[in-house]
Amino acid sequence: MASNTPKPPPDEITVTINDTAGTNIDTFAEKKLLRKCDLHVLPPLFTLFLLAFLDRTNIGNAKIQGLEKDLKMHGSDYNVVLFVFFIPYIILEVPSNLVLKKLAPSRWLGSIMVLWGFATVGMGLVPSFRGLVAMRVLLGFFEAGLSPGKLFAFKSRYYKRYELQWRLTLFYTASIIAIGFGGLLAFAIGKMDGIAGYGGWRWMFIIEGLVTVVLGAISFFWIPDWPETAKFLNSNERALLIARLSADTGDAVMNRLDKSALKRIFGDVKIYLGTLMYFGIVNTGYAGSFFIPTIIREMGFTASAAQVRSIPIFVVSAITAIIAAWITDRLRHRYFFCIFGLIISSIGYILLLNQEHLSTGVKYFALFLIVPGGYITQPITLVWMSNLVSGHYKRSVSSAMQVGFGNAGGIVASNIFLANQAPRYPVGYGVSLGMLWICGAACTAMFWLVRRENGLRERGERDHRLSEVDADNLGDDHPHFRLTT
């Protein structure tokens, strides 16, 4: 007989955690919670990432608007300006993640956003090449806390493993949009050339930097903090959030950073393979953002036309990245999507390595393979790594290591497209193609390692870990945890 007792509204549902493997969760309440998290977590972080990438990569547009001429730059000076950004950016990735653990995300991310905004303004005011180098170092210093902080907060505290890919890819579409929109913005702001004695490229840095400063100040009130203190959640929603994440990770926790935990973290080959994956693919992402406007201009277009023609490349990249992300989350599989993106991008590089036989239209088409292919693979490598580790501390360290040391690929990208090799860039395209398959080799090694490890766990050959002293702090080494392929 049906009960006449009215069902409590979703915000009053009590969630009971029965054990670490399962929960009694109302599906309607869970969907409502996900929508609420998406509404409060995604927009501010999307905006943050968009502005960070815009401020980081708009130098590519400044280059074709006269930056080198105005600052009397010669030879490899432009490559140096790109390179120096990555020195503090790489060194400070891991420490910044540890700082974030001690501070509210709104305070930390809002603060660094204001500071890198001022550094961007400074890039528009510098009188010399040396001043530009100094501002790029400061930009790398302040932006170092963004990527690992974003990944750590995003993955470990709000979403389950297979809810992550399309949401993270949404962040990466912010970077894609930043490059495409940056070209359009540079085209528009370029009309200000000569106002107050400043070149158009200077106004681009000044205006974009000031926008970042203003939004950084707003972020103190806009970016949500950890779920335990997030104001947009009520007590029952917090309980539900904890319950569903507990069900996702089971007993695979790491809440103590002791000697044994450090050994497990730094002895885990998955972290090093994940870093190598990112190192190989991030080169294509940075090469595209730094040099696409220049490459298109050297096809015979004006600076303004080159900026406008770069936009469709990044629109296509955003669409393909989101579609691939949605499918890979639905299938709960990462490897073959990584390889697919690498193949697409490789075809583009091979075409440009043989460009003396190609028309301008085919060379332009090759860019529609290189950039979208790279943006299919790049965010998947990050989420795959995140899926493969479990435990509070291990997630924090692994995400920072992957993004931090993996960004050494950006140093490579900064130094392989040499002015004296324009317009063919054989070293740039050749090295980039090789780095794609460094990523491919690491992805393949990861795939077979994970398959083997899951097989060992299925056969009970890792159950001995349950009797070890740190059995309650194993993280993803727990024999019940299954690794994502």
Automatic annotation (TrEMBL):
- GO molecular function terms attached to this record: transmembrane transporter activity
Annotated ranges, domain Major facilitator superfamily (MFS) profile: 41-455
Q: Return the GO cellular component terms, semicolon-separated.
A: membrane
* Primary location: membrane
Q: Does the keyword Transport apply?
A: yes
- From the record, give the transmembrane residue ranges: 79-100, 107-127, 133-154, 166-189, 201-223, 271-296, 308-328, 335-352, 364-385, 397-417, 429-450
Q: Please give, as recorded in its UniProt entry, the membrane topology of this protein.
A: Multi-pass membrane protein
The answer to whether keyword Transmembrane helix applies is yes
Q: Which Pfam families match?
A: MFS_1
Q: What InterPro entries does UniProt report for this protein, alphabetically?
A: MFS, MFS_dom, MFS_trans_sf
UniProt keywords (A-Z) are:
Membrane, Transmembrane, Transmembrane helix, Transport
- PROSITE patterns attached here? MFS
Query: What are the boundaries of the signal sequence?
Result: none
SUPFAM superfamilies, from UniProt?
Answer: MFS general substrate transporter
> Where is this protein found?
Membrane
- Name this protein carries in UniProt: MFS general substrate transporter
Origin species, per record, is Massarina eburnea CBS 473.64
